[in-house]
TrEMBL record:
This is PA domain-containing protein. InterPro entries: PA_dom_sf, PA_domain. It holds the Pfam family PA. The lineage of its organism: Bacteria, Bacillati, Bacillota, Bacilli, Bacillales. It comes from the Bacteria. It comes from Bacillus thuringiensis DB27.
Length: 262
């Protein structure tokens, strides 16, 4: 199962690096009664650096957003980090390398004035450039789809992803046979027991409807939208080819030649 290289790992990686760059935290314990003016200034400087680090992380996650490998959003993030390092006196070099094609889906809630979600799309299902608009219904667990309380014909079906490749393919095939407009599978468990991430479903058979892989949190939020009657969505997808990702290589100075790679 191919994980969509979005965001969380990328955000955490850059977040940790930026915290090291801009925070310079100290683990030394300073008794309050013994604190000098210099100590107070040092603590204040650490606080300012931490705030700046958070601002950088916020810019990457909110202003640029999800950054799958090889996309223009990832390149924007690399340029932003490179520019930031240059301002700190580093010599910066960008190193390009090829990455696999990306299949990226989007779920739009525009009629409710809300931001769209970026998710994974199955490579051998429909990749709709024109929006697929429909009502989302939640079926629940893998065994519930054949006993769904309401018809799924013409609906966009939200399902908990079954725990095996065979079972979640059965989910998709059954929904397609019954006339679903699209299938949204949300991942239950990710790496190391964390909540599941957005992913690219791997299908045994080519499907004529969109099949998207959502993160666990997206699936739970979608269920909440259904409860609050915000479940009419628009789906689109794209296939990006001939992609190159970027390493950001920063050298400290001509004297030390200290090298940092991101």
């Amino acid at each position: 199962m191919k994980k969509l290289n979005l965001t969380k790992k990328f955000i955490v990686t850059f977040g940790i690096l930026l915290l090291f760059l801009f925070s310079n935290f100290s683990v030394k314990v300073i008794p309050v009664h013994a604190m000098t003016n210099n100590d107070q200034r040092s603590l204040m400087a650490d606080k300012v650096r931490a705030i700046r680090a958070i601002e950088h992380i916020r810019f990457l996650s909110e202003k640029i957003g999800p950054r799958p490998s090889g996309t223009k959003e990832e390149h924007k993030a690399a340029t932003y980090i490179g520019n930031t390092l240059e301002k700190l006196g580093y010599e910066v070099e960008y190193q390009a390398f090829p990455v696999p094609d990306q299949y990226i889906g989007s779920i739009s809630f525009s009629m409710y004035g809300e931001k769209e979600w970026q998710v994974g799309a199955a490579s051998n299902a429909s990749i709709p450039k024109d929006p697929v608009v429909g009502l989302v219904v939640s079926i629940g667990k893998e065994n519930d789809i054949k006993n769904a309380p309401e018809p799924i014909h013409g609906k966009i079906v939200l399902l908990e992803q079954a725990d095996t490749y065979e079972k979640y393919n059965e989910q998709v095939e059954y929904a397609a046979e019954k006339g679903a407009k699209a299938v949204l599978l949300y991942s239950m468990i990710g790496d190391r027991g964390n909540n599941g991430e957005a992913f690219n479903p791997v299908l045994k058979k080519k499907q004529s409807i969109p099949v998207f892989g959502l993160a666990y949190n997206q699936g739970i939020r979608m269920k909440d939208k259904i409860v609050h009657n915000k479940n009419i969505v628009s789906l689109k997808a794209k296939h990006l080819m001939n992609l190159n990702s970027l390493n950001v290589i920063a050298k400290k100075s001509p004297n030390t030649r200290q090298i940092m790679r991101m």
